[in-house]
Structure to design on (737 residues):
């Protein structure tokens, strides 16, 4: 009799376990389906497409590695990647330092309403449509009739800066527009990271006579390093794929001075109707971003401090 | 006896049924899909109105509208290609000169000659009332592929108030490029005295190939050879025209530095820009803003006047499942009644010039006063916008080098030479 009871308990434990497993899969199923349909599927399709020549209107033609040969023979692609690298370096640096600086300024005792006002103000540009914002920036940046140059001339700068059509200044214009839009996200995440640091450390440091700067260097930064790593990785991945600002502000010009890789992919695929080649470039960008991310994680073991 | 009667009855019913079904097939019916360029917020409403009127005559034909967005013609062609790649099999397309060779060379369009011949004299009023230049633009290898619906050219808009204030005479109907430069110089000013001009005689900002090429055409040449088989950018006359445009901004400083998206119409209304180039389309914005103190002049000659034109019309896809219904729609859209709608309603003019000459007269009810030079240009020197099959790439590559020139970062010769090399594999016939 006791033996039967024991067997029934064991059986129901297995049944419970199976049900739990099914429930688990059920909960992650929507995300999984979304990932398969909208991320993995298109990635595989793009990988297959890179082996074909396709102009959207006639059936695709298999070319094997022909698109990769075209990539390595392309006179413009080197310059495009260089431009993307320069822009990414500027954008990541500005976003990270400005974001951290603003977060430090916000991380102090202040009225609840004031803190929320700042948080909303800095984060608001992040949620607004990037295209709409970029269109307004084209008015602001207009060389001859835009307000930015007007106020700069009031400040004494006589020469008018050609923000939107100059190899020298257009990259700056894009960085300004991008940082204005995205720095709020960095402020928010840095602020969250800093507020997770226990005040005890700072109190102990003050007792020991540490200055504000020493506290920042020795306490804040190390304890913030996981956040810094997260933002650095996200930032690099995003910056290498900038599209909205160059497309609207400068259309990649003048020449290829602000032509980012994604802008080039768009041009090859949708203006030149060479979808196979566009997919190949996209694949090369994927590989480069993947390698950079792996390098970042490997290096992170040296400077990231997990509590 | 009964069996014989029922046999006769069966025969009668069969014959009746057969006759009934064939007469039902005489009237075209079914569904057709129509692709158009949705470049303004009012575009769809305009086409829906046309379809509603079409359905009054042909209630059995359902016209499904597909709007493709885009800033310039290249965007529209690219969007249409994406649409077809996505599996749509449209029946009718509204397309312009820029896309003609692209679609025809890919074998996507049905030649209309047989359909036209089958109509006998019914379409003669249409063909008699259209300038030959418009029809020729839609012929490839002698066959007509599209029926012209409307068209546009490039003229010079000038702000009469600014001309009056500066004491400059209005442009004459035979003015030359030198006259233009003199007027623009007189209209340029440094209003706030900071050493930089903030009022400009002319602005060539915005737009693409269509709005930049007229200066090249005025020099008697073009950026590609007439047979569309090679680029022609190393022609000294082409280089001179581009140098002229560069110098307007950097030497004479009578034009602002061009950007990609600039609202020149607004600058014109605000009195910051005295002249700009456009077809009939700027009328929409100027009228909407209530601005009427302007007029138009022919494109300045150098010295002979010539201007650019582009036509749009309707064609039928080879893959169409219902070409009879599609043809009915094409015929309907070419009627004078429908063309009349291109003129616009009394509180909103439209932006294209009707293909029918008699109907085009109707644009006189709106500004500008000098409206006759629109249709009149077709009787003079007009050159079709250069549209090889790979027009998108031609425009993209040319404008990239042009923008570099206009950024004052490369000499015109270097730019045109590099563009010539890059375009030699794009504009080709072999």
């Amino acid at each position: 009799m006791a033996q039967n009871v024991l067997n029934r308990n064991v059986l129901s434990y297995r049944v419970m376990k199976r049900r739990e497993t099914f429930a688990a899969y059920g909960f992650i199923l929507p995300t999984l389906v979304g990932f398969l349909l909208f991320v993995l599927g298109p990635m595989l399709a793009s990988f297959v497409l890179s082996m074909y020549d396709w102009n959207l209107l006639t059936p695709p033609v298999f070319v094997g590695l022909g698109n990769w040969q075209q990539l390595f023979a392309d006179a413009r692609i080197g310059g495009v990647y260089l431009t993307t690298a320069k822009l990414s370096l500027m954008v990541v640096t500005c976003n990270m330092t400005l974001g951290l600086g603003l977060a430090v300024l916000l991380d102090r005792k202040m009225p609840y309403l004031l803190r929320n006002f700042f948080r909303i103000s800095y984060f608001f540009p992040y949620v607004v449509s990037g295209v709409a914002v970029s269109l307004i920036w084209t008015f602001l940046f207009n060389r001859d009739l835009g307000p930015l140059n007007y106020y700069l001339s009031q400040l004494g700068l006589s020469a008018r800066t050609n923000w939107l059509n100059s190899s020298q200044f257009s990259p700056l214009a894009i960085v300004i527009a991008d940082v204005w839009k995205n720095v709020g996200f960095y402020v928010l995440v840095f602020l969250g990271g800093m507020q997770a640091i226990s005040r005890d450390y700072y109190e102990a440091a003050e007792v020991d006579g540490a200055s504000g700067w020493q506290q920042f260097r020795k306490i804040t930064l190390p304890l913030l390093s996981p956040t810094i790593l997260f933002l650095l990785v996200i930032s690099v991945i995003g910056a290498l794929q900038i599209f909205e600002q160059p497309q609207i502000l400068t259309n990649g010009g003048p020449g290829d001075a602000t032509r980012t890789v994604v802008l080039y992919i768009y041009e090859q695929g949708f203006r030149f109707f060479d979808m196979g080649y566009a997919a190949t470039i996209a694949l090369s960008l994927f590989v480069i971003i993947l390698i950079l991310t792996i390098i970042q994680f490997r290096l992170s073991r040296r400077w990231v401090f997990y509590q | 006896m009964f069996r014989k009667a029922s046999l006769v009855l069966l025969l009668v019913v069969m014959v009746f049924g057969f006759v009934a079904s064939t007469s039902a097939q005489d009237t075209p019916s079914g569904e057709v899909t129509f692709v158009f360029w949705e470049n303004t917020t009012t575009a769809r409403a305009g086409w829906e109105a046309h379809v509603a009127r079409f359905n009054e005559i042909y209630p059995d034909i359902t016209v499904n509208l597909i709007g493709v967005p885009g800033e310039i013609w290249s965007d529209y062609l690219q969007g249409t290609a994406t649409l077809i790649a996505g599996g749509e099999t449209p029946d009718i397309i509204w397309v312009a000169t820029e896309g003609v060779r692209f679609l025809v060379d890919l074998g996507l369009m049905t030649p209309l000659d047989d359909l036209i011949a089958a109509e006998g004299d019914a379409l003669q009023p249409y063909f008699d009332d259209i300038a030959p230049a418009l029809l020729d633009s839609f012929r490839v290898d002698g066959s007509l592929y599209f029926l012209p619906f409307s068209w546009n050219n490039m003229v010079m808009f000038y702000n009469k108030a600014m001309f009056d204030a500066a004491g400059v005479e209005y442009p004459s109907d035979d003015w030359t490029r030198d006259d233009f430069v003199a007027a623009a110089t007189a209209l340029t000013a440094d209003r706030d005295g900071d050493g930089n001009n903030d009022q400009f005689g002319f602005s060539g900002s915005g737009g693409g190939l269509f709005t930049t090429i007229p200066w090249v055409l005025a020099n008697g040449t073009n950026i590609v050879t007439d047979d569309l088989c090679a680029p022609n950018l190393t022609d000294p006359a082409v280089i001179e025209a581009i140098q002229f445009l560069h110098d307007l901004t950097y030497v004479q400083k009578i034009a602002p530095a061009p950007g990609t998206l600039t609202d020149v119409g607004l600058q014109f209304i605000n009195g910051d820009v005295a002249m700009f180039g456009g077809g009939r389309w700027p009328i929409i914005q100027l009228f909407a803003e209530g601005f009427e103190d302007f007029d138009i002049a022919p494109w300045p000659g150098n010295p002979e006047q010539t201007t650019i034109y582009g036509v749009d019309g309707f064609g039928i896809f080879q893959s169409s499942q219902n070409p009879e219904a599609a043809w009915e729609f094409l015929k309907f859209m070419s009627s004078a009644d429908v063309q009349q709608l291109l003129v616009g309603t009394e509180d909103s003019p439209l932006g294209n010039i009707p293909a029918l000459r008699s109907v085009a007269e109707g644009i006189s009810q709106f500004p500008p006063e000098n409206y006759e030079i629109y249709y009149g240009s077709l009787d003079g020197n007009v050159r079709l916008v250069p549209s090889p099959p790979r027009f998108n790439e031609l425009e993209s590559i040319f404008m990239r080098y042009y923008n570099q020139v206009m950024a004052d970062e490369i000499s015109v010769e270097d730019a045109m030479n590099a563009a010539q090399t890059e375009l030699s594999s794009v504009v080709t016939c072999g």
Residues 81 and 103 of chain B are 9 Å apart (CA to CA). The two ends of chain B are 77 Å apart (CA to CA). Chain B touches chain A at residues 74, 78, 81-82, 84-85, 106, 108, 194-198, 200, 256-263, 267, 272, 390, 392-393, 396, 400-401, 403-404, 406-407, 409-410 (CB under 8 Å).
